[in-house]
Design brief:
seven-stranded parallel beta sheet, 6 helices, Rossmann fold, 207 residues, two-stranded parallel sheet, binds zinc ion
C-alpha cells in the first residue's frame, strides 16, 4: 500500500483468521441479534440490505442450538422518532411503531428474550444493554449476528469488545452492503477486539 492511501486504488483484504470451531459455556453466553427488522431485511423495507434475507436461516439455526443449550437471547431494535438526525444520513427507517421497525416474523423474540431498543448504531450507547448482560444475566461471551455488518453489528461488537466481553461473530450470520464492508467487519472483530470469527453459525458450539 502506498502512503498516503488514495481511495480508488485496489485494496487487498488483510488476512482474517477464522476459527474452525468455537466452544462457549452456555450459562455465560448470550446471543445478540442486531436489527433484523423489516426495514433492513424485507422487500418493501426502506433500507434493505439485499443479502440480509440469506442470513435468516443461519440465524434461526444458531438460535435453535442456543436455546436448546439454555443460552440467553437478546435483540437490538433500531428505533427512531420524528426529527431524528440519523434520517439526514439515511432514508427514514425504523420509525417506532411501524411495520418496518418490527423484528422480522422468522426471528420473532420469545417471552424469555429481551429486546433492547436503541437509537444509534451501537446497541450499548444510551441503553440498558450493558447493565443487563453484565449484572442480570452475568454473561461474558457474546455471539453477535444481524445487520448491517459494518454499521450496527460492528459498532455493537466494538462496544462489547471495549467492555471486555468476548465476542464471536459468524460470517454467515451477518450481512453487509458490500464485500469490502463484510471483510472490514470480520477483520476488526478478529483483530482489534480479540474476538473470534467463524465461517458458519454451525461452527459455534454451546456446552
Ligand atoms: Zn437507524
Amino acid at each position: 500500500m502506498s502512503v498516503p492511501f488514495i481511495p480508488g486504488e485496489t485494496v487487498t483484504v488483510p488476512e482474517i483468521t477464522f476459527a474452525d470451531q468455537v466452544r462457549l459455556p452456555a450459562s455465560k453466553t448470550a446471543v445478540i441479534v442486531v436489527d433484523m427488522q423489516n426495514d433492513f431485511v424485507k422487500e418493501g423495507g426502506t433500507l434493505v440490505v439485499p443479502t440480509a434475507i440469506e442470513t435468516v436461516p443461519n440465524i434461526q439455526t444458531l438460535l435453535e442450538s442456543a436455546r436448546a443449550a439454555g443460552v440467553r437471547v437478546a435483540y437490538t431494535q433500531d428505533t427512531h422518532f420524528e426529527g431524528d438526525p440519523e434520517w439526514q444520513i439515511w432514508p427514514e427507517h425504523c420509525r417506532a411503531g411501524t411495520w418496518g421497525w418490527e423484528i422480522i416474523d422468522e426471528l420473532k423474540p420469545r417471552p424469555e428474550d429481551v429486546v433492547c431498543q436503541k437509537n444509534r448504531y451501537d446497541g450499548f450507547y444510551g441503553t440498558w444493554l450493558d447493565h443487563f448482560l453484565s449484572h442480570v444475566w452475568k454473561v461474558e461471551h457474546l455471539v453477535i449476528v444481524g445487520t448491517v455488518s459494518s454499521i450496527c453489528v460492528l459498532h455493537t461488537a466494538a462496544s462489547a469488545g471495549l467492555r471486555w466481553f468476548h465476542i464471536v461473530v459468524p460470517a454467515d450470520g451477518i450481512s453487509a452492503l458490500t464485500e469490502f464492508d463484510q471483510a472490514l467487519t470480520l477483520r476488526q472483530v478478529s483483530w482489534l477486539y480479540l474476538g473470534d470469527v467463524v465461517r458458519h453459525t454451525t461452527d459455534i458450539v454451546f456446552e
